[in-house]
Write a structure and sequence with these properties.
Blueprint (H helix, E strand, L loop, with lengths): L13 E6 H5 L9 H13 L2 E7 L3 H4 L3 H9 L3 E3 L6 H12 L2 E3 L18 E7 L2 E6 L32
Parallel strand pairs: 1-2, 1-4, 2-3, 4-5
Antiparallel strand pairs: 5-6
Length: 168
């Protein structure tokens, strides 16, 4: 990219809180990769969104490119949760307060009950061969009853081995 990059939301841009620790760890069996975070950031920006990168404090000690990571923190591109805290709380709180989407493959099981609206604003992702694929999930689809499944309002039949008049 040419010239300095502006930090902060662009006009009329959807904000996306990026779970940077989750993204960095998305490469199985390898150390967390800063390249993953940059790929996701760049993809969201290309798609016209404003990524807000939030990471656990521990990521700085695990990431494969510590100097590059520290440069992004210093530049304000990565917001680091305070040491000893759970970044998930900050990610979900920022999403609520900003009306933002959340990009993560985390299920947020221990916090989702306090942030139920986030379920509808999650963007799942995959990184394959240096490409980022995004999946936006909306409201869960209502399941239609299967035509061969018995309906609860259908009359119930008596078992076949009973004759009329017998008590169970």
């Amino acid at each position: 990219m040419d010239g300095p990059q502006e930090i902060g939301p662009r006009p009329k841009s959807e904000r996306v809180i990026v779970d940077a620790s989750n993204v960095a760890h998305s490469t199985e069996k390898l150390a967390p990769k800063l390249a993953n975070v940059r790929l996701v950031r760049d993809r969201l920006t290309e798609d016209g969104m404003t990524p807000i990168l939030v990471a656990d404090a521990a990521l700085r000690h695990q990431i494969d490119d510590a100097d590059g990571y520290e440069a992004l923190v210093k530049a304000g591109e990565i917001q680091q949760a305070p040491a000893g805290t759970d970044a998930d709380y900050f990610i979900l709180t920022f999403a609520r307060e900003l009306g933002a989407f959340v990009l993560s493959n985390d299920r947020f099981k221990d916090r989702i009950s306090h942030f139920p609206e986030v379920r509808e604003r999650i963007i799942r992702y995959m990184i394959v061969a240096g490409e980022v694929v995004l999946e936006r999930r909306g409201k869960p689809r209502e399941r239609k009853p299967r035509s061969d499944a018995p309906r609860s309002d259908a009359p119930r039949r008596a078992p076949a081995n009973r004759t009329r008049g017998q008590q169970p």
